[in-house]
Amino acid sequence: MYIYLLTILCVIGIAAGQILFKFSASAINESGSFFDIKTLAIFFSTMALYGITSIGWVLILRKAELGKVYPFMALAFIIVPLASRFFFGERFAPMYFVGTALIVSGIAVTVMASR
C-alpha cells in the first residue's frame, strides 16, 4: 500500500515540475532572457525536482509492476490544470470536469483490476 502513496508523491512532483516550468516561462517573458538569475533559479529548481522524482520513480519500480502504478500518472492531467487555475488564473471549459471524472474512473478501474 505504501507503494501507491509513493507513486502519488511522484505524480505530485511531476505536476509541480510542470507548474515550475510555467513559472520559468513567465520569468523569461518578464526578463526577456533565459539567462536571467530568477529564470535560471526556477528552471534549475524544476530540473532538480524532476531528478529527485525520477529517482523516486525508479525506486518505486523496484517494488511495483509498471502496469499497476503507471495509471496513477494520469492524475497529473487533473493536478496540473487545477494548479494552473490557482497559480496563473487559467480557465478551462466545463467539459474539463467530464474528462476529469473519466480519468478518475479509469484510474479506479485500473487499480481494482490489478488487485
From TrEMBL:
User: Record's InterPro entries?
Assistant: EmrE-like
Q: Which UniProt keywords apply?
A: Membrane, Transmembrane, Transmembrane helix
Entry-linked Gene3D superfamilies: 1.10.3730.20
Any transmembrane segments, and where?
41-62, 69-88, 94-113
Tell me yes or no: is Lipid metabolism among this UniProt entry's keywords: no
Name the record gives this protein: 4-amino-4-deoxy-L-arabinose-phospho-UDP flippase
Q: Which lineage is the organism of this entry classified under, starting from the top rank?
A: Bacteria, Pseudomonadati, Pseudomonadota, Betaproteobacteria, Burkholderiales
